[in-house]
Design goal:
Structural class: alpha+beta
Number of helices: 13
Strand content: 15-25%
Radius of gyration: 35 Å
Distance between the termini: 30 Å
Length: 579
């Protein structure tokens, strides 16, 4: 979710509760675009992290410290000079802008009481931290913006501070029904887009949620809606804004499986299908959400080389498969040449020298066929020529059938590696996948490096009925789960005909309830290439019926008797166990 005005309202409310009246004890600038303020309050010491990073601007309370440079940057020294030991008298948000004002009282060089304002702008690539005097004149900023960089507003010492109104958006906290309806009617676009492009601080996710709560299809153009429908939408919009005005915030993160999908300061009703985790503070939400996102991004970046290896091998094998299939198709008529050879042997005695063809009755089909002949060859030599052609194509067919099966197995294996990379959650997961690729010959082992031993556990869930369910993260774990960890009476699950994880349910000798079968099926569906589908076919069988063919690649198994179920891939209500 975007760091929108509602999120800023929630963090402003939280900061106001915890920091108002506190004194700024320390000011650090760990990075060129970051500040870390240590504030002493009646309830103890608090740390405020502020980032004006263009790709990830943030502000939240934290308990973590960051290493600062030996020599403090100029902006940091300026703040220490003016507001070191200053008292925070107020924290506010103008309208519903993504801006927070910190009004700070301090004593100047003569001992007189003065007031300054530290302004935090959370605006994507335009994010900034601006320090102003009591008259709104900029003293300095963490990023300088000259006229050459922006024609809208200069952010330089001595310039007057103002909020640029480039989008001409309305304040959602004060908009009445007439203003709301007029604004939406003027925009020939989807009603949800009309909402978030007309009002300050509203993100697309919030606009979608308001439409959902109003029972409206968000994709319908606002311009075609009548006044009664728009009045009804405004009523729901007002209820939403009432929560903001009354500081009725309920911070939460919504998870798609183990992956954080969105966070919110106010519950998102249209995200009911996702697993919701509630938090006490919006700071905790931001810290958790972006830490998880950063981990996933980092894993994606670190897996890029492995993905390239797998994708290159996949493309090569798919081209090979297509070529082999085409060559096999060319051998489909081989039986015809065998019949031609036989018919020439039977009827060739009647041929005249130099005959170009032989018309004969095919005794296999009782149809007359015309067989082309080489005029330079005798009937016996023509017959032999067709037999040679038949035998050559027969050998080609047999060889190609084996090669096609091998290529098909390679493709399935590489697709399973691709799926393992998609669900990898840690560097240990990637290291184990790399080791597997080394063992199977797709990646060379560096001669200086010995084979690595891993302590990397499978994912662990517990069913609603209390049964433990385990999910392999890669092929090596799949093999270990199925053939070393599981016992004969445990149940094994896998998405039918698709790369995916092995899922093992420990039965403890019990007969499993239907609900546990369904939840294990959901796990097998979610951790497969069919993730996100509403209908995934799952094969399941007792582990004792699952076999590993000799010489088979990691993760490859066979089974000849199984049950099947069709299930969705929603695992939001399945409890995760942290081992």
């Amino acid at each position: 979710m975007a760091f929108d005005g509602i999120t800023v309202a929630a963090i402003t409310h939280e900061l106001k509760e915890h920091l108002t009246g506190g004194r700024i004890a320390k000011i650090a600038q760990p990075e060129p675009d970051e500040l870390l303020l240590t504030i002493k309050t009646l309830n103890g010491q608090k740390k405020l992290y502020i980032s004006a990073n263009a790709s990830l601007p943030l502000i939240y309370l934290t308990e973590e410290s960051k290493t600062s440079p030996m020599t403090a940057p100029n902006f940091c020294m300026l703040l220490r000079k003016h507001i070191g030991n200053g008292r925070i008298v107020n924290i506010s948000q103008p309208k519903l802008e993504r801006i927070i004002h910190f009004d700070i009282e301090h004593l100047d060089e003569l001992g007189d009481l003065r007031q300054k304002c530290l302004i935090i702008e959370i605006m994507g690539k335009h994010s900034n931290i601006i320090f102003c005097d009591d008259k709104g004149i900029i003293i300095d900023s963490i990023k300088h913006v000259s006229a050459q960089m922006s024609s809208v507003r200069e952010v330089l010492p001595g310039r007057e501070y103002f909020i640029p109104d480039t989008m001409e958006k309305l304040d959602p906290l004060t908009a009445d029904s007439s203003t709301f309806i007029t604004a939406l009617k003027e925009k020939p676009m989807a009603v949800s887009k009309a909402v978030y492009t007309s009002f300050t601080g509203i993100s697309p996710v919030v606009a979608e949620d308001i439409c959902f709560l109003a029972g409206l299809e968000s994709g319908i153009p606002a311009s075609v809606m009548n006044e009664d429908i728009l009045l009804h939408l405004h009523k729901q919009f007002s209820y939403y804004m009432d929560d903001v005005r009354n500081n009725n915030f309920h911070a939460a993160i919504y998870y798609d499986g183990n992956i954080p999908k969105e966070f919110s300061a106010i519950p998102l009703s249209h995200y009911k299908k996702y697993k919701k985790q509630d938090f006490v503070s919006i700071s905790e939400v931001l810290l958790t959400y972006y830490a998880s996102k950063n981990t996933i991004t980092r894993i994606r970046q670190k897996s890029a080389d492995l993905r390239h290896v797998v994708q290159t091998a996949l493309e090569r094998n798919r081209k090979k498969y297509d070529l082999q299939t085409k060559q096999l198709k060319d051998t489909e008529n081989r039986e015809k040449f065998k019949v031609y050879g036989e018919l020439i042997n039977v009827y060739g005695y009647s041929l005249e020298a130099g005959a170009r063809e032989l018309k004969a009755l095919n005794y296999y089909t009782n149809e007359e066929v015309t067989i082309p002949l080489d005029t330079q060859l005798t009937p016996q030599e023509n017959s032999q020529k067709y037999f040679i052609k038949y035998n050559k194509q027969k050998r080609t067919c047999e060889a190609l059938s084996e090669l096609i099966q091998e290529t098909s197995d390679d493709i399935r294996y590489l697709e399973s590696i691709s799926n393992a990379l998609d669900i990898a959650l840690s560097e240990a997961d990637l290291a184990q996948i790399k080791e597997e690729l080394i063992e199977t010959g797709y990646v060379r082992r560096k001669f200086t490096k010995k084979k690595t031993k891993f302590v990397n556990k499978p994912m662990h869930y517990i069913s609603s009925d209390g049964y433990h369910m385990y999910v392999g993260k890669n092929n090596l774990q799949n093999d270990d789960l199925t053939f070393n960890f599981a016992t004969g009476g445990d149940w094994w699950f896998h998405a039918k005909g698709a790369p995916g994880s092995h899922v093992i349910v420990k039965t403890n000798g019990d007969e499993l309830p239907d609900r546990t079968f369904e939840e294990a099926g959901k796990l097998a569906a979610y951790y497969s290439k069919n993730r996100g589908s509403d209908k995934v076919e799952i094969d399941y069988v007792e582990k004792k019926h699952v076999k590993k063919p000799n010489g088979a690649k990691p993760g490859f198994v066979v089974y000849y008797t199984n049950y099947s179920l069709v299930i969705d891939s929603d695992i939001s209500n399945i409890k995760t166990v942290q081992d």
